[in-house]
Amino acid sequence: MKNITLKQEYAEGRVVDQGSGETHVELQNLEKLFGVNHAVNNLNLSIEKGGFTCLLGPSGCGKTTTLRMISGFIEPSGGNILISGKSQLGIPPHKRNTSIVFQEYALFPHMTTRQNIEYGLKVKKLDAKIIKKKTDDIIEFMGLGQAADRAPKFLSGGQQQRVALARSLVMEPEVLLMDEPLSNLDAKLRVRVRTEIKEIQKRLGITTIYVTHDQEEALSIADRIAVMNDGVLQQYGTPWNLYFNPANQFVADFIGINNFLDATVLSVTKKDIHIAIGGQKLTVKNDGFLVEPESTVTIGIRPESITVQRALEQKEHFVKGEIRIHQFLGSLVRYWIDFEGFEVMVDDHAPAGTGILPPGPVFMEFKTIGMQFFKK
Amino acid sequence: MATNTFTGTTFRIRTIISDPTKYFAILAALLFILLFVIYPTIMVILEPAADHWVRFFSTARYRTILMNSLVMALLSTMTATIIGFCFSYALSRDDFPFKKFFRLVSFLPLVSPPFVAGLSLILLLGRRGIITYGLLGLDISIYGLPGLLIAQTIAYYPIAAVSLSGVLKGIDPTLEYAAQDLGQSRWGIFRTVTLPLAIPGIASAALLVSMMVLSDFGNPMVIGGPFRVLATEAYMQVVGLYNIKMGAVISFVLLVPSLVVFIVQRYWLSRRQYVTVRGRGGGLSQIPTSAPVKWFLVIFLGCISLFVILIFIVIIWGAFAKTWGLDWSLTLENFQYTLMARTRDIWNSVWFSAVAGICTAVFAVISSYVIHRKQFAGRRALDFFVVLPAALPGTLIGIAYIVTFNTPPIILTGTAAIIIISFMIRNIPVGYRSSLSALYQIDESIEESAADSGANTFMVLKDIILPLVKSAFTATIVYTFIRSINSVSTVIFLISARTNVATTSILGLAEHGYWGQAAAMATLLMAITLSVLGIFRLLGGKRLFDI
Q1: Of A113, A188, A269, B229, which one's alpha carbon is 20 to 30 angstroms from that of B139?
Q2: Mutating which of B172, B181, B195 best tests the A interface, going by the most A Cβ atoms within 10 A?
Q3: Which among A69, A70, A102 is the top mutation candidate for probing chain B, defined by the most B β-carbons within 10 Å of its own β-carbon?
Q4: Is the ipTM reported for this complex over the cut 0.85?
Q5: Sheet (strand A86-87) strand order
Q6: E strand or H helix at A188
Q7: CATH code, residues B60-307
Q8: pLDDT tens column, B76-120
């Protein structure tokens, strides 16, 4: 694993994730080979009961394969999957206590909303009255009353999504699996539906594993996120933790926006770290970083962790750059600043007070919150 | 107001002058359809008097023939559709073995005239058949309903298979996964998901087969024996008794199921096509087919395939056998006869079909382009009439053309032109649709940007559309060629001594018991078809029969 973070808190595991603590789904050394390629490589993950866990990563990272192994559609090449402590290997999908919502919903086009929802109950050969009751309840719960007797193609994207979710939930699975369920919705609807999904999940307290490639979606919806790349787990933690304490440069880059600057560490004291970026020297507070003097590192710093002000008089912990261009985005102003050969993105979240700075020389201050050091 | 109208008119004139190709193309397409689809259809409707209708429905003989036709169509449609479904279902499964072989067999009968099946059955199971007489020493007759059913099933199951394959392949595998996730068994998935989704496709395939079986008369003529059907009766009335009016009545009865097919497909099935949103596919391959189903299909389709192959082998063998049933020694005499006496018929077939192929493709591309990308009054009507011939049985078109083009103002009977035009009309619907689906792949903005650069309709067609629909264009040529060179039901009414074609020639030989010569000629015809198909595929053509 390259570019490991150099922060004491993370390295020592001092940042503890909050959660129920009770493991519901456990992946042990899980492995999937397609030919000679590792789609999933030695994955260990314990997913807590009642939690909302996202598997996040770029396409081809193995997240969907992992989900399908949990659902039973793909047999692992190695390792184990435990649900409530019981191994699921060799158990077919419908005998597992999981239910999956597909990306494309997979609603039966020849059935109405109601028929889609009661399909699984009928397969189970439940009593007709019970089927009706359960179906009615979930239709009401999901607000699908008006859509109950319509075929999927007459439903909006958001409604189709809810029917797919209802069809899974009515089976009362122990674990709900969702495979990029929002990717067929437009941007605005996506934000609304993900809030709905989160609310439903919290109300039912159902353990949910949710696959997405959208980091913003994952941050907003998940209790815990497992970031994957090339079949390998990069980091597993709360959204907060991933954002502020990324385990490596991949996570730092994938989650949120980050500036990466090559720097040399000049000296380290308990209080401060002195570094040089290009021709400029800079002192930052030592916030428990594990850096060694005279080493080269990559600094990751979020756009909102840099403040800018007009270059009047040089101060000790300020560096000098030059504003090239800005974009006014309403709630913030984003500057692109040329700094020692790097292009640094800086967000000013309170532009009302300062106004928009004109192109030209500018001072920048780097705050240590959200700053990361990576070994080169 | 007057000024407005004036401005409107000048504007219109100006647009016509600025883009003559568009208006010429629309006019040409309209004229062609008007002259060779709408006009003959109206003429044939007007041909019989009320008296003929009364006679048709009140005569016991006609009623029997009508019943015969219905029984034959119903039974052979069932068997052909079931076999076609099995083929396309098997071929739609990822884990089905020997797929290449089964794919080949699934459309093999399409490369020969349909009556080759009947001809071969006689050589196999007839009074002098290799199995019945040669092996078993039996003296039984295959002529009649049983033989006809087998022949029609073999000749037409590929139609069902081809028409169903798109439907079965189009079913999103995630639906099966969803059903499985909800606890359904594999048989349950087939029963509650796959089959219901395929029902519209099955209905449409069955209707298509029934329409073709009903209007086919190669097989009834060859193997029907005393079992008379509407198509052969229409031919008898027109060519034998020269009672065109009665022929027109019968061909009209044949039109009924065809029109039902057409209307059902256009207005009912099109609304029931289940197009599911396909995600990225995600590498979810299908759920494995259950072993018993798989092996049942392998054995069932294996037997069918062997039989079909036997049918073609027997035709080739028959072509080389001295006197079938008496002397099975090999000879080239049959080919010598064919090449001496029937070369002109074969040559006619080839060049009529080739010209028809090219003209059909040109017509299809131009008409699909102007109808779907240009705005003009009557656009939707033209779209309807271009595909209408798909609903017209070959027999009807044949009789309509005799009725229409035998008398002034336009006399075409006995010419090559009328045969080529009939080939075109029969294949334009398919060519039009395939060119349309190629056209849908081209974003309108591509043409718009060409137009923006100053290109007119002609230049857009030549520089943008044609290169992009090239594969649909060549496929239409080859498809039309193959269907035309093997067709019987229209052309049999239109041939003259000078313009006889191979299929009708073979039919005549078979009818008179010249099995060897008929088989030799059928073999030559298949060789031509297969080489054209082979060259087309070698040159990188797409699959014509997409199974």
Answers
A1: B229
A2: B181
A3: A102
A4: no
A5: A37-48, A23-34, A78-83, A86-87
A6: helix A187-204
A7: 1.10.3720.10
A8: 999 999 999 999 999 888 888 888 888 888 888 888 888 888 888
